[in-house]
Amino acid sequence: MIVLALFAPWIAPHSYDDSIRGARMKPPGAQFWMGTDNLSRDIWSRVVYGARVSITVGFGAVLLGNALAAAIGITSGYFGGKYDMAVQRVVDAWQSFPFLVVILSLMAVLGPGMLNVILALGILGAAAASRVIRGATISVLQNAYIEAARAMGAGHLRIMLRHVLPNVAATIIILATIGLGGAILAESALSFLGFGVPPPYPSWGAMLSGSGRSYMYRAPWMAIWPGTAISLAVFGFNMLGDALRDVLDPRLRGAGGGRIQ
Prior knowledge:
By secondary structure, the chain is an all-alpha fold. The protein contains eleven helices and no strands.
């Protein structure tokens, strides 16, 4: 999916908005691998360019959300006390609102667009991740090297950046990779509802919603291939997150090894 997104102009045989003369709703074949749509556009080319939308939104929302979650989780777990209690009550309220209702309300206010989708998904996705990072931070603070750093006169910012953040980085990376699939799925849902990236730029969710739904019985390939792309992208990033968890989590690193002496 990343290769498709990066090299779309070289992989796709046509531009995403090219109307090919005499090729309206052609079934998949040697000339058009995934067929064409009702506007004579090559679906394979649109799926390839659509990977750019999903990858950009997915990575952008995850980077924004995890940066915000790390700032909230690390400071909340580090300082504790009344600050921690106040922040966690805000996070509780943050998580109490239905995700779909809030995201649709935000998109109705901000308007459709890639940047607005990234902002909305990133901000809303930070609450749950901050809880996990807070728990990892509290665990790290129990180690002796934190007390040693304090005894040497290290300030709060130095301890958080030099000692806490590197030790919770594995947790942040795992959360980010697992969240990629959810962000791609959320972007597809928003595009399906008309709140995502506006046309003519292709989005897999929009391809399912518009002509794909209208011509589903007459030209089923118009809905099958975008849906398959969404499923493969979400499945792939979920598997990547599981693999990174097995590699980066020291408790799982030797799970299949030999006998413990």
